[in-house]
């Protein structure tokens, strides 16, 4: 799993649909996920730390989770199938004296999981497979340079650069 962070909300220039953009820590990969307008509003409110007078849906969900003695441990965006992303919210009992694995997975749409994670200050993880299939490069120049550097390294590699099992060069 790769930890990612919400970079923001954008609009698809082709159709005006909202997109939540996730970035990896290096900001070299972006994962765009198309979402609905209500979820975009919920994510934007969480990013701006906006607290409505009355709880909105994701606030209500977090309040319910907390009232039941749980906390949002993390979310995972773990599958991409037929252009649809799948996520899991992991709840954990909010009691340090419990030594058992008390994590409960809950199936979710990524947009709802992200809105909840932001409110709960929980980590957002994305599976390596989803990152591989769904991300776009945001620093193409750096990626190309690293590929050239790696190819040069491989081309210049000699057998004498390796040590045998006795720690001696062959």
Summarize this entry quickly:
This protein has 170 residues and is an alpha+beta fold. The chain has helices at 37-47, 57-67, 110-120, 128-134, 140-156; strands at 2-11, 18-24, 29-34, 70-81, 84-93, 104-108, 123-126, 136-137.
Using the coordinates above, name the CATH class: Alpha Beta
Report the helical percentage: 25-40%
Mean pLDDT: 86
Low-confidence stretches are: none
Shape: globular
The helix tally amounts to: 5
CATH architecture: Roll
Question: How is the biggest beta sheet arranged?
Answer: 8 strands, mixed
Number of strands: 8
Category from helices, strands and their pairing? alpha+beta
Order of helices and strands: EEEHHEEEHEHEH
Strand content: 25-35%
Structure, explained:
- The protein is α+β, with helices and mostly antiparallel strands.
- It has a single domain (2-139), classed as Bifunctional nuclease domain.
- It contains five helices and eight strands, in the order E-E-E-H-H-E-E-E-H-E-H-E-H.
- The protein has an eight-stranded mixed beta sheet with strand order 6-5-4-7-1-2-3-8.
- It is globular, with a radius of gyration of 21 Å.
- The two termini are 38 Å apart.
Give keywords.
alpha+beta, single chain, Bifunctional nuclease domain, 170 residues, globular, 8-stranded mixed beta sheet
């Amino acid at each position: 799993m790769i930890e990612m962070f919400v970079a923001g909300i954008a609009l698809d220039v082709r159709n005006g649909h909202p997109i939540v953009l996730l970035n990896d820590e290096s900001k070299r990969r972006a994962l765009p996920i198309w979402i609905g307008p209500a979820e975009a509003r919920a994510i934007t409110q969480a990013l701006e730390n906006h607290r409505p007078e009355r709880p909105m849906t994701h606030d209500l969900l977090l309040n319910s989770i907390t009232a039941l003695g749980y906390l949002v441990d993390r979310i995972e965006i773990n599958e991409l199938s037929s252009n649809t992303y799948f996520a899991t919210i992991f709840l954990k009992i909010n009691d340090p004296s419990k030594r058992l694995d008390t994590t409960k997975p809950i199936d979710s749409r990524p947009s709802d999981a992200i809105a909840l994670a932001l409110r709960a200050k929980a980590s957002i993880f994305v599976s390596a497979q989803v990152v591989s299939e769904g991300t776009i490069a945001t620093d193409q120049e750096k990626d190309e340079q690293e590929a050239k550097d790696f190819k040069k390294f491989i081309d210049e590699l000699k057998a004498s650069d390796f040590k045998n099992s006795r720690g001696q060069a062959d």
